[in-house]
Amino acid sequence: MKYTQLGRTGLKVSRLVLGTMNFGPQTDESTSHDIMDAALDAGLNFVDTANVYGWGENKGRTEEIIGAWFAQGGGRRDRTVLATKVYGNMAPDDSSVWPNHDKLSAVNIRRAVDASLKRLQTDYIDIYQFHHIDRSTPFEEIWQAIDVLVQQGKILYAGSSNFPGYKIAQANELAARHGRMGLVSEQCLYNLAERRTEMEVIPAAQDYGLGVIPWSPLHGGLLGGVLKKEATEGRRASGRAADALKDIKTREQIQAYEDLLDKHGLEPGEAALAWLLTRPGVTGPIVGPRTQEQLDSALRALELELSEELLTSLDEIFPGPGPSPEAFAW
Known about the structure:
Elements lengths: L2 E3 L6 E3 L2 E3 L9 H13 L4 E3 L12 H10 L10 E6 L19 H15 L4 E6 L8 H14 L2 E7 L3 H13 L5 E7 L11 H7 L3 E5 L10 H7 L6 H7 L2 H16 L4 H10 L8 E2 L4 H10 L6 H10 L8 H4 L1
Parallel strand pairs: 3-4, 3-10, 4-5, 5-6, 6-7, 7-8, 8-9
Antiparallel strand pairs: 1-2
Helix pairs in contact: 2-3, 3-4, 5-6, 9-12, 10-11
Organism: Streptomyces roseolilacinus
Keywords: Oxidoreductase
InterPro entries: AKR_Detox_Biosynth, NAD(P)_OxRdtase_dom_sf, NADP_OxRdtase_dom
């Protein structure tokens, strides 16, 4: 396993992040624990979750599965860098949301972190992430709440998710003025097919010393060999991938991508992960395996070395937006 420091911190994390969103909804507890054990045995020490995972009536279920895994002992918690998130309401449906039970008010942050700690069966969270910006709560209030949690030993670092570049700057400028560390990571949608984050989010993260943690590295399966599976296994695309393939140009783009990787003898999903590992500022992409086989495939991506020729060809198929302001100014 390869490790790197998370942004400007001294915290060492694996270059792959184990995403747990499927634990509960699609993967049962026993299989989830097997996957987590296999990941830890492979040296993958960075685990990401969120309080809302489990969804609907089962919100919080994913954290409970992780907590039960920690409770087995064997140094599992000590060897794990644990990240979870706060923002969404924990009610089973939107109609039953109670005021102050969501977003980033000091009241909800305090309530949410205590509930997560109980479900996770741990006394601290390594990285507590804001799942979305809260347009109603000033960062003065947010940082004050985080200060208390750090002083209490309940969290060690704060991170963001789905923040635009200007909010990363705003949050960390205010933190710096008060002598606080501020955000240390940003979790964002980033992959070969979705590169808008290169314009401002990643440059902001690099300037302020945040580690970048891409989610959906295969873009909902679109970059995982979807056309090959359709042709050879009869497996139809679903979700985001199916919607994207309705566009003829996108389908042609994905076909060119799969043909290129077939020429180089590479699996599409593994190459997509390996590409992210070459990108400036990226700490490690989040992989969300539902099975042991999917975890094994993700781990193989760490061993791939993509040639300059292949990287150039991938850029030709999936051109990035270019830097700002040039990308939108002229």
